[in-house]
UniProtKB/TrEMBL annotation:
Gene3D superfamilies: Phosphoglycerate mutase-like (3.40.50.1240). This is Histidine phosphatase family protein. It holds the Pfam family His_Phos_1. GO terms for cellular component: cytoplasm. InterPro entries: His_Pase_superF_clade-1, His_PPase_superfam, PGM_Phosphatase. It comes from the Bacteria. GO terms for molecular function: phosphatase activity.
């Protein structure tokens, strides 16, 4: 049976001086450091047998995908199934103004952290990402595919693949900026999950806008 690898790459650092929970908002681009991170992950995957590169529709993911695709003379295609998770507090600063947990008007959004009640259900995220992964696996049969997307959809997909509960502590996610979560398939069956942080040397001082927050 053939072995196929689907790499789930998280985008690099985003230019976000106001620390907004940007979610699916358009126009949020990589910072200068984020562009360096993207090149690091492209270098990390340069010797891999990449057959296709697909990206979330969001700019930061497409910018991260570009050097990966260029290294393999490929075009980046867009897959809406791997977009960022939806979140009720998109466009706000968590813990400030209308996004304060202490504001009784917001309590209904925090009623069920297992679902979670403040945004797109974890199971829905896993379902759409797995659909994109399986299609990429089939298209890259016997080779490798890259999907560039976002922290939370990657993390809950990994937890699902490893048979773990989808509910988790956001502070303990193993999904750093421009990290690579690799799903190894033998035929159609998932055999192993790998993880690498090729841009780790750039993490000091980097702003991870989603770390510790709700997405």
């Amino acid at each position: 049976m053939t072995t196929t690898i689907v790499h789930l790459v998280r985008h690099g650092e985003v230019h976000n001086p106001d620390r907004i929970l940007y979610g699916r908002m358009p126009g949020y681009r990589l910072s200068d450091r984020g562009e360096q991170m993207a090149q690091h992950v492209a270098d990390h995957l340069a010797d891999s047998d990449i057959a296709l590169v697909r990206s979330s529709p969001l700019l930061r993911a497409q910018q991260t995908a570009a050097p990966i695709a260029a290294a393999h003379d490929l075009e980046v295609t867009t897959d809406p199934r791997i977009i960022e998770s939806g979140n009720h507090f998109e466009g706000q600063r968590m813990g400030h103004g209308e996004a304060k947990l202490s504001d009784p008007r917001n309590w209904r959004w925090f009623l069920n952290p297992f679902r979670p009640s403040w945004g797109e259900p974890y199971r829905d995220q896993v379902s759409r990402v797995i659909s994109a992964v399986q299609e990429a696996r089939q298209a890259a049969n016997g080779r490798e595919a890259v999907l560039v997307l976002h922290q939370l959809p990657i993390w809950v997909t990994r937890r699902s693949a490893e048979g773990k509960p989808l509910f988790h502590d956001p502070r303990r996610r193993e999904c750093g900026l421009c990290s690579v979560t690799s799903l190894h398939f033998v035929g159609p069956h998932l055999a192993d999950v790998g993880y690498a942080e090729p841009a780790a040397e750039l993490y000091a001082g980097a702003v991870d806008a989603t770390g510790g927050n709700l997405t």
